[in-house]
Amino acid sequence: MGFSTTGLHPSLIDAVTEQGYTEPTPIQAATIPAILAGQDIMAGAQTGTGKTAAFALPILQMLSQAPIAGTGRRAIRALVLTPTRELAQQVYKSFVDYGKHSPLQTALVYGGASVNTQMAALAGDVDILVATPGRLLDLIGRGAADLSRVQHLVFDEADRMLDMGFIDEIRRILKPIPAVRQTLLFSATFDAEIFDLSKSLLTNPTLIEVDARNTVASQVEQMVYAVDADRKRELLSYLIGSKNWHQVLVFTRTKQGADELASEMCKDGLKTQSIHGDKSQGARERALEAFREGAIRVLVATDVAARGLDIDQLAYVVNYELPYNAEDYIHRIGRTGRAGGSGIAISLLSPAENYLLEEIETILDSRLPQQWLPGYEPDPTKEVKRPRNASKGAQKKRARERALGQKPGKKPGQQQGRGRR
Ligand code: AMP
User: Fold this and answer.
1) What is the CATH code for 3-209?
2) In this structure, are residues 139 and 286 in contact, taking their beta carbons and an 8 Å threshold?
3) What does the pLDDT read at residue 191?
């Protein structure tokens, strides 16, 4: 149907055409007209669905059309909050790319970079501000960010913002923002916490969901290899080498685990780097760039560090360890199969992680068949140790079940079988 039916201005359609987009994605087709009509939106959308353009395009249009109030310096009229620096950078870039034919100015503020440079940027004309919560609060405290004229407020990846414990920052950021405004909340997953937050932030929101709630993009093939924990690294190196995988994003649960795995993979002859919250912003960006360019083959990341990574046509995502929080599985595998591309998500499952797989299958509402690679079958005589923190996933699960109105404790039966190879 093309972008012309979305109600967007020809200059914005030109800008997206220059990006190579020909058709709006389903989330764009659903949200753009509603946002242009001024509605508050609560949208279920994962990274990779085109959700950034879904809010950036209509905001650019509304700001271009609205008269700029008063004289003197232009005020921040749209604020986008994101959980991580990487996502903030991507959202910023999208506003700049889509807004290239408009005079609107976008600024970016996030932690880990010079506060003075960001203060200088905010001292100029800024129409749109993209920010992570902690640094924005710091800048508000310094009197450098005036939010008193914000008309459009966006929460991007709201579920992750809550998971990262940003609720207090969010409440404090909201104080100077006018109550009469348009609020748009995007979240990959919905649970009771998100609904609670939405009640206090949004006015009569329109709920938009393009995919069934808590499902993954259908073009992602999900595979589960059962293997003993102490043989996972060996199996992973074997799979990457024998199947000739390139640009493999691997998830670990901990920063230390990411570093250790990266150094072991290097010893196996695979160019690997790790990114996590203890690495400097510069080091994370350099690793990401090397991965994008193909200079490194494997990037090992923690959930927080990987959030919002936008790497074109990422074909392979590996869960080296299953996440404690089942929703993280959806976020992780959302790195692949982006915007129409196809991808493979591989999970390495140790016997101790079976209960985590069951939680994931519960929220996906589908079974993930397991397979073994000959030579790497789990040893049934080994003792199964449940990982520490095991109760956190169970707690979250119960909360989720309550939110979805299910009876807590209902688990699907276990399924094992030699499957596809
Ligand atoms: P997002 O979900 O916002 O992270 O976007 C995922 C990827 O899809 C980005 O690389 C965008 O550039 C791309 N994208 C967004 N909208 C479209 C579209 N209508 N057609 C093709 N690609 C798109």
Assistant:
1) 3.40.50.300
2) no
3) 78
